[in-house]
Amino acid sequence: MAHALKTHKGAQKRFKITKSKKVMFKKSCNNHLLTNK
Q1: pTM exceeds 0.70
Q2: Domain limits for position 23
Q3: Is the pLDDT at 24 greater than 60, yes or no?
Q4: CA angle 14-32-6, nearest 5°?
């Protein structure tokens, strides 16, 4: 895990934080997210 909470270029592409402060996963994790719900 990263020590500092800086926006990571790789993470920025994968995650998106919505206004309600939920984290949305993009692309690679899409299928996984559906199974976890």
Answers
A1: no
A2: 1-37
A3: yes
A4: 25
